Amino acid sequence: MMRVRIIGAGHSDRGDDACGLVAADMLRRVAGPDIDVVDGAADAAAMLALFEDVDGVIAVDCARGGGTPGDIVRLPADPAKWPKSRASSSHGNALADAVALGEALGALPPRFAVFAVVGTDFTLGAPLSPAVQAALPNLIRTVMQEAACMKPN
Amino acid sequence: MAVETRTIRVDYLARVEGEGSLYVRFRDGALEDVRLAIFEPPRFFEAFLRGRALAEAPDITARICGICPVAYQMSAVHAMESAAGIVLGGQIRALRRLIYCGEWIESHVLHIYMLHAPDFLGLPDAVQLARTHGDLVRQGLRMKKIGNALIEAIGGRAIHPVNVRVGGFWKAPAQDHLHALLPDLRWGRDAAIKTLQFVATLPTPDVEQEYEFVSLRHPHEYPLNEGHIVSSGGIGITPQEWPAVFEEFQVRHSSALHARVKARGAYLTGPLARYSLNFDRLPPAIQQAARDAGLGETCRNPFKSIVVRAVETLFAFDEAIRIIEQYQEPTPSFVAVEPRNATGHAATEAPRGLLYQRYDIDGEGLIAHAQIVPPTSQNQATIERDLWRVAEHGQGMVDSELQALCEQSIRNHDPCISCATHFLDLTVDRA
């Protein structure tokens, strides 16, 4: 049986950077018991461990740039081509570093996808911006469709 | 004649925790200025703590760092218990030592494999190290995971543990839960020996620095949570006496306070200091492993800190196994701490060095004043002194080589800038 894990990455107290975590909370309610939904880890090594023991991973994060606020973008396989997020997040580039490390070690699961919502407000303590908040329902549908594609049975 | 200026500037230091920069300036061939600037904004944790209940300190201070939250919790709970006049022993004490072993493992292994080793191999980062030394990196990742699992088993979760409380633990881990970790820890101990053997082969410059080492020293143990504060310069005090001997001060180029021995100056905490002041407290087998790796009883070569860190990683695995083999679940898992109007002090050994905390507690058990002095703050001046020497000796190097050596020199001390802001852009100015 195909095992899929959804990872919500980000920081809960940095405005739009929380959208991956908020999305993970929403996905837990709709994903069903056969899909593992977890919050991301704070460093690349711990994040890489979340790629283990599954056949597919869908990561959800926030991007700084790369489109209009609220846009949902599917990030390319090479994290070097991802929008930069350093200035917005204390978790640094844990997800990007984990993907790069996983690729170098041949430790990425066979199926892997990363979706990011383009953020606009990364102020400490701020809520999600209206643009990112409005994008969440579509993000949930997009992630669930991807999970269904990874789990054809 | 025109003045020739050469500047090396690194605006964002890589492979350090937090955000800082490095600036080196030469004028007419002479080194004129070296600054390690920490520009990560101040975080005001000491102010957050004011007015909060003493029981909240372990959870609030844990948030200072995602790499070494246990250190902040341990210094906090010991300071609170110092204020209350109680000293805990038995299995609660052992559990505190055990959770600290987990933190040393995950922090030291992260630094050895992900942050520091690429420097010695001429590689830009851990991803390239993974391409050239895949099995080695896999080994490091597994070791780190074991350290995290140990913290989680005791602390409830690996990052910002929630099970630590003043007086002990909210819930003691079951004996069989800890025993289940033993196979991985025994594998980790073997992997730590291989790590030590690997880092001992890394090429290091042959330098010796005149540091004043400062660390805890315990009558019987390699220090983690307890001991007197001692130095290679003759200091021997209790943590209560820290303010009488040391002082913090501000410099214009850093949002982190520096610290010095009053009337004397810079000092160094961390693995080099701990090891050099406590070699005789290591178990004989680990002393021998250190000797086999080429170390003496003291180590003043900062580029060998990666070897010392590997010795301490081996110690942490060994000590964790010893504690778990003897573990019996404490009942109760904590003792009640009655607040009283008093001041509490504590110093424990974070992976990066001595972490001192002081709290004034009022009669209601509220925090009236907090002081937190992380190891990176204490080490900043010494790191700049190291950089000064590196830049002087590396003056003939091209900028890219000098920059790489300067960055390596900083990483020798594994600075945690997020903790200190209370790391790195480099500028070399050769006017």
Task: Provide a quick synopsis of the model.
With 153 residues, chain A is of the alpha/beta class. Chain A has helices spanning 19-30, 44-49, 94-105, 130-150, and strands at residues 4-8, 35-39, 56-64, 72-74, 111-119. With 431 residues, chain B is α+β, with helices and mostly antiparallel strands.
Structure write-up:
The complex is a heterodimer of chains A (153) and B (431). In chain A, helix 1 links the parallel strand 1 (4-8) and strand 2. In chain A, helix 1 (19-30) packs across helix 4. A 5-stranded mixed beta sheet of chain A has the order 2-1-3-5-4, with helices on one face. In chain A, 33% of the residues lie in helices and 20% in strands. Chain A has 153 residues and is an alpha/beta fold. The model of chain A is unreliable at 86-91 (pLDDT under 50). The relative contact order of chain A is 0.26. Chain A has helices at 19-30, 44-49, 94-105, 130-150, and strands at residues 4-8, 35-39, 56-64, 72-74, 111-119. Chain A contains 4 helices and 5 strands; from the N terminus they run βαβαββαβα. Chain A has a single domain (4-150), classed as HybD-like (Rossmann fold). Chain A is globular, with a radius of gyration of 14 Å. Chain B has 431 residues and is an alpha+beta fold. In chain B, 44% of the residues lie in helices and 18% in strands. Chain B has a single domain (5-430), classed as Orthogonal Bundle (Cytochrome-c3 Hydrogenase, chain B). Chain B has helices at 45-49, 57-62, 69-84, 90-120, 126-132, 134-155, 175-179, 182-199, 242-245, 271-278, 284-292, 305-325, 375-393, 399-411, 417-420, and strands at residues 5-12, 20-27, 30-38, 164-165, 168-169, 214-217, 228-231, 236-237, 246-249, 258-261, 342-350, 353-361, 367-373, 424-430. The longest helix of chain B is centred in the first third of the chain and has 31 residues, at 90-120. Chain B contains 15 helices and 14 strands. Mean pLDDT of chain B is 91; it is low at 421-426. At the A-B interface, helix 2 and helix 3 of A face helix 5 and helix 6 of B.
